[in-house]
Amino acid sequence: MPDGTQTLPVSTQDLRGWYEQLLVIRGTEKAAFDLFMSGLVKGTTHLAAGHEGVAVGASAALRPDDYVWATYRGHHHAMARGLSPEACLAELMSKGTGACEGKGGSMHLTYAPGNMMGSYAIVGSHMPMAVGSAWSAVLRETDQVSVAFFGDGATNIGAFHEAVNLAVVWKLPVIFICENNLYMEYTPISSVTAVEHPAADRAAAYSLPRIVIDGNDVVTVRDEVGKAVARARAGEGPSIIECLTYRHYGHSRTDPAKYRPEGELEQWLMRDPVTVLRDQLVEAGVGEDELTVIEGRAQQMVTHAVEAAKAAPLSDPREAFTDVWADGGSQWRT
Amino acid sequence: MPDGTQTLPVSTQDLRGWYEQLLVIRGTEKAAFDLFMSGLVKGTTHLAAGHEGVAVGASAALRPDDYVWATYRGHHHAMARGLSPEACLAELMSKGTGACEGKGGSMHLTYAPGNMMGSYAIVGSHMPMAVGSAWSAVLRETDQVSVAFFGDGATNIGAFHEAVNLAVVWKLPVIFICENNLYMEYTPISSVTAVEHPAADRAAAYSLPRIVIDGNDVVTVRDEVGKAVARARAGEGPSIIECLTYRHYGHSRTDPAKYRPEGELEQWLMRDPVTVLRDQLVEAGVGEDELTVIEGRAQQMVTHAVEAAKAAPLSDPREAFTDVWADGGSQWRT
Amino acid sequence: MADLTYREAVAEGIAREMRRDPSVVCLGEDIGAAGGVFKTTQGLFEEFGPARVWDTPISEQAIVGAAMGAAMTGMRPVAEIMFSDFLAVCWDFIANEMPKVRYMTGGQVTVPMVVRTANGGGLGFGAQHSQAVENWAFTIPGLVIAAPSTPADVIGLMASAIRSDDPVMFFEHKTLFASKGERPPEGHMVPFGQANVVRAGDDITLVGLAWSMPIVIEAAEQLAAQGISAEVIDLRTLVPLDASTVLGSVARTSRILIVEENPLQGGWGGTLASIVADEGFYDLDAPVKRLAAANVPLPFATHLEDQVLPSVATTVTTAAAMVNS
Amino acid sequence: MADLTYREAVAEGIAREMRRDPSVVCLGEDIGAAGGVFKTTQGLFEEFGPARVWDTPISEQAIVGAAMGAAMTGMRPVAEIMFSDFLAVCWDFIANEMPKVRYMTGGQVTVPMVVRTANGGGLGFGAQHSQAVENWAFTIPGLVIAAPSTPADVIGLMASAIRSDDPVMFFEHKTLFASKGERPPEGHMVPFGQANVVRAGDDITLVGLAWSMPIVIEAAEQLAAQGISAEVIDLRTLVPLDASTVLGSVARTSRILIVEENPLQGGWGGTLASIVADEGFYDLDAPVKRLAAANVPLPFATHLEDQVLPSVATTVTTAAAMVNS
Ligand SMILES: Cc1ncc(C[n+]2csc(CCOP(=O)(O)OP(=O)(O)O)c2C)c(N)n1
Ligand SMILES: Cc1ncc(C[n+]2csc(CCOP(=O)(O)OP(=O)(O)O)c2C)c(N)n1
Ligand SMILES: [Mg+2]
Ligand SMILES: [Mg+2]
Question: Are residues D163 and D23 in the same domain?
């Protein structure tokens, strides 16, 4: 086994950084929810609250030049790769300072400077793309790794199957990370899937090992993704990692999540990635006062972001007709 | 285990019947090849010669009211379900007496009277349809079983994955039978597939057992399909069966099959399903003279079919504008 | 009769047929106990139970493919594809299988099924959840294409769709779900291929479909205030296409403006315009005009989406210019 | 210069770009050592090796999706979809992903890639291997659509396609593969959006694309023998659409006949006809006419397929009637 498959070291400095990241993402999504409720965010949003451990843990194992691909539930991944809370919220509010100039919205957050290549709203579609950026890395002879985050429900769509098979056949440096939150929209994943673990129990169909981990523990995620990254960089091909997690809100803005059995949310809240990491910090000897400082700083960053995003002007209406073609325009005829 | 999972009895009468069926199919395809070469068959053909053991063996385990779905390589399946050699050849020659009035051709042979629901030329597309006819049987509370025959290459397309998963989730009476002939067109299947056995090694991804059998032995196929049929009728859900076989011709009419390693064809010809069954007949005590009679009868049936198909008139040119809609016409506007 | 919403009309239209015919079954994602993400199947699971209303995995190819297989063997399945944009992931079944099987089997097999889907923009759902894709279906011979604009038409066309022995694409419009209209009596049916002349007029023919109907109706009101008498036609189905009604109208008005939600390039209005510019050529006193979406993906932001889609204002301006020039 | 076939031109066009630019790579089913089922990639594997020419499984979604991912990260992939009918199995990538990513990311990401495919009928391949589906692509804003009719245009448009920073759908026509033409010099490029006036004429404008070009050219010959002077235009690309050239021609001829292979319903000619019936309305002396495939799936039998597709004879008859009426 290559070195990378060893468990990576963890410093309290790392833990502190991850904790702050978790809090900023959590706070930004809370703000998004409130802005939605007050009518300032239109369309729809799919909040990732509860899933942030996967984003922060995986990001901690990646290099800045690695590629990340996400779904419509992608706020956490964009922010974990460097998208500012302000650019995130501004996008949701259709502002000119938004990540995508108001053309993408919540479901299509993209942050190219962080090689966060976009959020895709057709279930499964980004998985072949992640295979493609991994292929590209091989072709260009860089050792960049690609990561596709996806939901449990996405494992039942054809594109998933085609993507993983091709990645294995071509032995590409891509990591498929499933955020198994028990539900595809309103339907329990177990009722529509032929196996217990939608991603991990499919791994053998592509000659890959079965990996299921606690997605709410940043350190566990970082370690397991770290091993997969090491394998990928060493030319050993793809991995599938299934992270068990839970979303705190409903599927999307309109969903009160009444289909959840009583007590389920409460149980998972006890394993909230924020709480888990906070406990680890306390255990590592970080005091309450220091934690309060971190929490205050995160809160302030979010507050500032909300204000800045609110203050920004709507994107220019002419933006509707730009960016279709690479020349920047949308002309289609003479 | 239900009774049906026991090995079924085999009479020499069965063997004789299967042998004749094999020969008629083989002879009809040989005739199709010759007719193609002499310019009387247009378009393309995908001959199944070498695969007939799968069709004859599976059919022997099915009831007349069970449903069968095939690919563009479906001559053997249509004939095993009752399509006459004449209607087959007439279709290939665009005759009015053809199975589909010249509108389908080799790639779309269909024989509804035998519940052979069609041949489909987009790889993978018929697999969800087979799931649908199995669902229909459940809804109508019949105990009909559905069978989808498909190639090794088809296991890498999304529709395969979606079909099998849904069939298992809904516990439907459908049997997925893979004809693994080692190639997807001109490319060895092993070079584009993440596992050794394209179908069987995927079964576990749907909580199904791994089944790989000799597809060139009619009796083996009949027995294994028979067990799956019994499970399906007993409400125990789907099966995947991977049959190892080989095609004697190239992929389609234009393919000289130069990509085959030397000696491969010759090796497989020694395991030709016709030879295998003939040996079994001899072993069961059927004499050469009796075999000659069967062979002569099969040959004569084919000769007659060729003549009748040749003699039939082309389909009526007005057929081009019928059968779009259920009212028989093609009117699309007022 | 009491009013009902377009959204309720969908569930009601399906329910009426399910009561009548036990071979009608529904399948789709979250359509069961959840009642559908647009609540268009609300109540069906409660009334008909899990043997008639089936939840599926996220497997659109399996959904439409299984519906096909069932349709070909004695059932009348109604498959939901949640957003019409997702027709793309099962396009093979829509374009290459459903509409061709009857033909390529020489009529041996029929495919009596309905694919229902929430179509169109206007709600800020962005490029992958907002497209009006009735024109995709319009490129494929062998599909009936229905796109109702009122609750009564939803019920009437749903009855025709489910009873049809042909495959039907049924486009329900997202922005119309909350709109209200009269609840039609039991047994109400709207036949395919019969356009609805919503308003009679003499100066210009305005043709719309689904989403664009409220727009052309409001535009006709505003034009009337300007002294312009517009005839308003709701096509209701694209296939069969009621070209006669349109041509008959143009024969009187001598002007036509087609208002489409789909993009101008490859929009259904192109084919209709070409028919009018051919068969109705000598009736025309003005250029044939189309208003359609700009040829760009749909943007997320509402103020940008507004730039891309036709509006009442552009309809009125265009029509008035046509009549006054 | 020696002649080469259209088929050879495909491989040659790709090869020229691969020699020039190491970021150009090919992927598809059986395109490597096998040279492609239509032999349109013959020689590429031998010249550029397995690091530039990649065989894939039967996974069209993975093919186009992987090409996208590579295109977005520094490569210029050329993906082959064997028959254009199979675009349906990866339609999500063609319709919802490739053409929208640049827009919905606010221009953060570009997708410089080509999807090549063997398009069209005429060879007796039946309903699922014969469709002319350039009109499917035409419904989708954000795709460049090229459909060359000659070997030189194949090479010239391929150069433009591979060098383009936009996603390009490149339709190669099955019935043209064996046709021959002049081998263009190195560096030959045909820019997008520039129609080719193949023959000048005064009485009527005949517009074609790819498959229909031999038909309209032959029809123009036969019309000339009848004393009718037809101008013949090869659009070459549907997007960008060279409407000016068509409108300029109609301004002189005052008559237009569009000959398409795709079905009449939803065919690209509808949009072109609607533009002419709008912007060119006052130039027209005769109804705008289209000849397109009948609205049926393509039948297998040659004598049936002949019934469905436009022909030289129908083109000549229609054009002559337009000019003589
Ligand atoms: C192809 C496709 N089908 C259906 C949908 C509608 N849809 C959006 S999210 C979703 C559930 C996805 O579940 P999962 O993959 O578990 O992700 P989660 O939302 O739980 O993070 C569905 C069905 C879609 N966007 N794309
Ligand atoms: C979706 C799709 N992609 C590609 C093809 C072209 N094609 C036809 S047959 C074939 C190979 C199929 O191989 P396999 O499934 O092993 O079946 P076999 O032909 O060996 O019986 C391919 C790639 C197709 N018909 N449909
Ligand atoms: Mg989920
Ligand atoms: Mg094979």
Answer: yes
Domain range list for chain B: 12-307
CATH superfamily of B12-307: Thiamin diphosphate (ThDP)-binding fold, Pyr/PP domains (3.40.50.970)
Quick one: C205 and C140 in the same domain?
no
Asked, for residue D189, whether it belongs to a domain, the answer is no
Average predicted confidence (pLDDT) for chain D: 98
A181 lines ligand 1 (CB under 6 A): yes
Cβ density class C222-238: b for 16+ within 10 Å, e for less: bbeeeebbbbbbbbbbb
Q: In a 3-state reduction of DSSP, which class is residue A118? A: strand
Q: Is the pLDDT of residue D269 over 90?
A: yes
CB contact under 8 A, A159 and B158: yes
Residue of C nearest to A157 (CA): C59
Pair of tokens at residue D301: 């039998």
Q: B205 CA distance to ligand 4 centroid (A)?
A: 21
Averaged pLDDT for residues C300-310: 98
Question: How far separated are the first and last CA of chain D, in Å rounded?
Answer: 45
Beta strand C3-5 pairing with C180-182:
antiparallel
Q: Which pair of tokens denotes residue C167?
A: 């495959």
Residue D178, SS3? coil
Question: What is the secondary structure of B98-128 as a DSSP string?
Answer: STTTTSS-GGG--BGGGTEEEEESSTTTHHH
pLDDT above 70 coverage of chain D, percent: 100
Domain boundary pick from D181, D214, D246: D181
pTM of the model: 0.98
Look up C303 and say whether it is catalytic. Answer: no
Residue B11 and residue B13: Cα distance in Å, rounded? Answer: 5
- pLDDT of residue A6 exceeding 70: no
Choose the catalytic residue: D129, D173, D188, D303: D129
**Residue-level pLDDT at D218:** 98
Q: For residue range D49-82, what is the model confidence (pLDDT) as tens digits?
A: 999 999 999 999 999 999 999 999 999 999 999 9
**Structural domain that includes position D309:** 196-324
- Is C191 part of any domain? no
The model's pLDDT over B165-182, given as tens digits with 9 standing for 90+, comes to: 999 999 999 999 999 999
Q: How far apart are CA C168 and CA C157, in angstroms?
A: 10
The answer to whether residues B166 and B207 touch, using CB atoms and an 8 Å cutoff, is: no
The residue contributing the CA closest to ligand 2 atom 17 is B151
Question: D61 in contact with A at a CB cutoff of 8 Å?
Answer: yes
The predicted-structure confidence for D175-218, as pLDDT tens digits, reads as follows: 999 999 999 999 999 999 999 999 999 999 999 999 999 999 99
In 3D, which of B228, B221, B153 has the Cα closest to residue B184? B153
Read off the tokens for B75.
């001559």
Q: Number of structural domains, chain D?
A: 2
B214-231: b or e for each residue (b if 16 or more CB lie within 10 Å)?
bbbbbbbbbbbbbbbbbb
Q: Which of C88, C104, C296 sits opposite D297 (nearest CB)?
A: C104
